[in-house]
Amino acid sequence: MSESRITDNLPPEIASRVTGSVINEGRATVVLDVAGLGEDSRLAIEADVKQSLAGVPDIADVRVVMTAERKGPMIIAIGSGKGGVGKSTLTANLAIALARKGVKVGLVDADIYGPSQPVIFGTQGQRPDARDNKPIPLASKYGVDHLSMGHLVAPGKALAWRGPMAAGALGQLIEAHWSEDTHILLIDLPPGTGDVQLTMVQKFKPAGAVLVSTPQDLALIDAARAGQLFDTAGVPVIGLVENMSGYACPHCGETSDPFGSGGVEAAAGRLELPFLGRIPLAMDIRQGSDAGEPPAAGDGAHAGAFHAIAEKLATWISERS
Question: Could you tell me the pTM of the whole model?
Answer without folding.
Answer: 0.76
